[in-house]
C-alpha cells in the first residue's frame, strides 16, 4: 500500500486548514500543517472523504486568488503517480502529471520541506 494524499503549499497569515478554499478543493482531513518563514505554509491532507473529493486542477486557483500569493497542490496516488497544479493570484495556472518513478519527487518535496526552518502552529481543531 502506498501513500495517498495531497500536499498544498501557499502563503497566508491564516492557517490554511481554516480557509474555505482549502476545504472545498482538498477536503478537511488534515494530517499536519507546517508554517514556514515568510508566511509560507505546507499542508499535508489525507485522501478526502468521498463527499469531499478534490478538484486538484482547479484547487489552487481560488486559493491563490483569496491569499494574493501563488499556490501549489500535489495530489499523490499510490506514491507512484503525482498530479501537480499551481496558480498565481493573477489567474495564471500550470499543471503536470508524473507517473512511475514519481516517488523520487515525493521524497524531494519531503526533504525540501524538512530543510526549511519550521514554526509549528498550534494543533488545528
Q: Can you tag this structure with a few keywords?
A:
125 residues; alpha+beta; seven-stranded antiparallel β-sheet; 3 helices; globular
In short:
This protein is α+β, with helices and mostly antiparallel strands. It has helices at 20-26, 60-67, 103-115, and strands spanning 5-11, 30-36, 40-45, 71-77, 81-87, 93-99, 118-119. Strands 6-5-4-1-3-2-7 form a seven-stranded antiparallel beta sheet, sandwiched between helices.
Could you describe the 3D structure shown?
This protein is an alpha+beta fold and 125 residues long. The chain has one domain (5-117). It contains 3 helices and 7 strands; from the N terminus they run βαββαβββαβ. The protein has helices at residues 20-26, 60-67, 103-115; strands at 5-11, 30-36, 40-45, 71-77, 81-87, 93-99, 118-119. The protein has a 7-stranded antiparallel sheet, with helices on both faces. The longest helix is centred in the C-terminal third of the chain and has 13 residues, at 103-115. It is globular. It starts with a strand and ends in a 6-residue tail after the last strand. The model has no long low-confidence stretch (mean pLDDT 79).
Helix coverage percent: 10-25%
Low-confidence stretches: none
Strand content: 25-35%
Shape: globular
Largest sheet: 7 strands, antiparallel
Say how many strands there are.
Answer: 7
Number of discrete domains: 1
Look at the helices and sheets and give the structural class.
Answer: alpha+beta
Number of helix segments? 3
* Order of SSEs: EHEEHEEEHE
Give me the Rg, rounded.
13 Å
Question: On the 0-100 scale, what is the average pLDDT?
Answer: 79
Amino acid at each position: 500500500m502506498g501513500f495517498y494524499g495531497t500536499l498544498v503549499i501557499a502563503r497566508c497569515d491564516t492557517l490554511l486548514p481554516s480557509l474555505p478554499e482549502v476545504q472545498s478543493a482538498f477536503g478537511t482531513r488534515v494530517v499536519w500543517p507546517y508554517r514556514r518563514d515568510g508566511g509560507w505554509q505546507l499542508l499535508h491532507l489525507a485522501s478526502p472523504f468521498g463527499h469531499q473529493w478534490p478538484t486538484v486542477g482547479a484547487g489552487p486557483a481560488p486559493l491563490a486568488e483569496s491569499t494574493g500569493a501563488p499556490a501549489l497542490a500535489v495530489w499523490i496516488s499510490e506514491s507512484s503517480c503525482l498530479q501537480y497544479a499551481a496558480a498565481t493570484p493573477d489567474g495564471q495556472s500550470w499543471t503536470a502529471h508524473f507517473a512511475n518513478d514519481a516517488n523520487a519527487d515525493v521524497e524531494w518535496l519531503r526533504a525540501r520541506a524538512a530543510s526549511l526552518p519550521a514554526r509549528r502552529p498550534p494543533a488545528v481543531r
